[in-house]
């Protein structure tokens, strides 16, 4: 009993220190109470955002992502699993055909059951196309809210408990601030509860996998990350980081081959269960795979702030190169830019290095991989949020430009008001007093010496661009001029940020080497 009480006192010590700042009223009851308060507020913000417009609202014949998600519920509910990815008279793949892995299909099926119970017309085969009744929209919004509450919120809580559980010196206000940064990320809220998607599921599963890694539950992490991969194939942005970190840990164990085999079996087993309906026929299996890699759409779509789209102003990639050549080129560059981060984790696996690896690998995928969307910036933004306490100011700038890169998309969805409101809320929370950030405990590197001047300049530039985009029509000769300028500005920042975070990760290797030398001397 005494030991249990002692453990409880240690856990509470993290929370009761430094309660005199702006977060003191929230954190003095403990991490659990602080998380609950922030979670309830975050849920209310999501509800408020969901009252606004969404992708393709009232815009026939194809509508937008809202209709795509609803149509997948219609298809999965009314057709057998083997027909979900196959073009037929009952499943026209040219109209929002299912192009995500099987776990998304199963999620659509269960959400479709929910809608059918209350509004059967919203998921009836054929006749429900473009269905936008008030009840149908309400139920669709509830499916996203429930996904957040059931998957993303618990995953964040697990991460926070694991990440700060062994740190008796952690400032309580820092923990509350970090929880708020994770649960009130404006980009995720705008895309999931405004534009309309279910990123909270794949991102939540990824956060849970990260928490499992940090708590040394590697087998559980393999299952959770495999689930994330099978919900959205874009979760592959994180795969090099998971692979290199786990491989580095296996090399340091007594039987490395056995450890690798155990992890591999967990991954294969999870994939086999989820893909079971499609493993009985090679044609069916490859038919599903072809749906998950729509190379025919080109190397990029719209104006996304990555390398291919930004440089296309000077180099017309789609005209000069065949799709096959571009696939090989993008794959090569993506792997090469991921390699430094992967090598660091194989040589010196650590919890902090793993988080940096997630960030650097996902940034490489966002900037150089094939078929990137504006919304894909959510993937590198996730590990950046997990590391927010390590570099608060760069994290704020990254969030600013992540939002800005999606601004034209959100304006098309008529979500400009939500965009402004959520950005203002983010800034209020970011600027709230917080011990570690305000106390000057964080060591600033030489590369950040000119950061305040640079941040002020680029912030004012982007603010002016916001106003110009909303108030001044572009020249007739260059109808996408403003989108191109926004894309160029955002991409420039993403490149600088990638250099900065890669340098931070490799600095961990020197610390690891010096620690090993000290151990040998002892």
From TrEMBL:
Record-given protein name: Alpha-1,3-glucosyltransferase
Family, per entry: Belongs to the ALG6/ALG8 glucosyltransferase family.
GO (cellular component) term, any one: endoplasmic reticulum membrane
Keyword field contains Acetylation: no
Keywords: Endoplasmic reticulum, Glycosyltransferase, Membrane, Transferase, Transmembrane, Transmembrane helix
Stored Pfam families: Alg6_Alg8 (PF03155)
Residue ranges crossing the lipid bilayer per the database entry: 23-45, 138-163, 175-191, 203-228, 263-279, 353-370, 377-396, 416-434, 446-472, 478-501
Domain of life according to the entry: Eukaryota
Membrane protein topology class: Multi-pass membrane protein
Molecular-function annotations in GO: dolichyl pyrophosphate Man9GlcNAc2 alpha-1,3-glucosyltransferase activity
Pathway as given in its UniProt record: Protein modification; protein glycosylation
Keyword Transferase: yes
Signal peptide start and end residues: none
Principal EC category: transferase
InterPro entries: Glyco_trans_ALG6/ALG8
Subcellular location(s) per record: Endoplasmic reticulum membrane
EC numbers: 2.4.1.-
């Amino acid at each position: 009993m005494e030991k249990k009480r002692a453990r409880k006192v240690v856990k509470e010590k993290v929370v009761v220190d430094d309660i005199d700042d702006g977060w003191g009223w929230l954190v003095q009851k403990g991490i659990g109470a602080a998380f609950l308060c922030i979670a309830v507020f975050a849920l209310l913000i999501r509800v408020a955002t969901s009252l606004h417009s969404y992708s393709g609202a009232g815009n026939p014949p194809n509508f937008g992502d809202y209709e795509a998600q609803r149509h997948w519920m219609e298809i999965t509910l009314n057709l057998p699993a083997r027909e979900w990815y196959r073009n037929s008279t009952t499943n026209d793949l040219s109209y929002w055909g299912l192009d995500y892995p099987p776990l998304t299909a199963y999620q659509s099926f269960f959400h479709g059951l929910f809608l059918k119970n209350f509004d059967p017309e919203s998921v009836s085969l054929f006749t429900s196309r473009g269905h936008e009744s008030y009840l149908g929209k309400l139920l669709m919004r509830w499916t996203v809210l429930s996904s957040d509450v059931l998957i993303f919120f618990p995953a964040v809580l697990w991460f926070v408990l694991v990440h700060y559980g062994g740190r008796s010196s952690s400032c309580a206000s820092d923990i509350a601030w970090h929880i708020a940064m994770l649960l009130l990320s404006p980009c995720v809220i705008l895309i999931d509860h405004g534009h309309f998607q279910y990123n909270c599921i794949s991102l939540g599963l990824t956060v849970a996998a990260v928490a499992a890694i940090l708590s040394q539950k590697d087998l559980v992490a393999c299952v959770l990350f495999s689930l994330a991969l099978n919900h959205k194939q874009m979760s592959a942005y994180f795969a090099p980081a998971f692979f290199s970190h786990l491989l580095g840990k296996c090399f340091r164990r007594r039987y490395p081959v056995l450890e690798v085999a155990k992890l591999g079996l967990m991954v294969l087993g999870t994939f086999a269960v989820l893909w079971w309906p499609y493993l009985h026929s090679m044609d069916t299996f490859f038919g599903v795979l072809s749906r998950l890699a729509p190379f025919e759409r080109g190397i990029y779509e719209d104006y996304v702030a990555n390398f291919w789209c930004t440089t296309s102003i000077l180099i017309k990639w789609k005209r000069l190169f065949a799709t096959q050549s571009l696939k090989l080129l993008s794959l090569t560059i993506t792997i090469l830019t991921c390699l430094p981060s992967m090598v660091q984790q194989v040589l010196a696996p650590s919890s902090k290095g793993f988080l940096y690896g997630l960030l650097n690998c996902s940034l490489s995928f966002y900037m150089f991989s094939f078929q990137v969307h504006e919304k894909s910036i959510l993937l590198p933004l996730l590990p950046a949020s997990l590391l927010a306490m390590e570099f608060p100011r760069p994290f704020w700038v990254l969030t600013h430009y992540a939002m800005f890169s999606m601004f034209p998309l959100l304006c098309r969805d008529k979500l400009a008001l939500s965009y402004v409101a959520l950005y203002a809320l983010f800034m209020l929370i970011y600027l709230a007093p917080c011990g570690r950030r305000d106390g000057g405990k964080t060591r600033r590197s030489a590369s950040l010496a000119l950061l305040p001047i640079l941040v002020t300049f680029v912030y004012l530039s982007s603010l002016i661009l916001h106003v110009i985009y909303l108030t001044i029509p572009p020249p007739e000769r260059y109808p996408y001029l403003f989108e191109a300028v926004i894309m160029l500005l955002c991409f420039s920042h993403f490149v600088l940020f990638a250099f900065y975070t890669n340098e931070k990760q490799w600095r961990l290797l020197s610390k690891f080497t010096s620690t090993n030398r000290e151990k040998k001397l002892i």
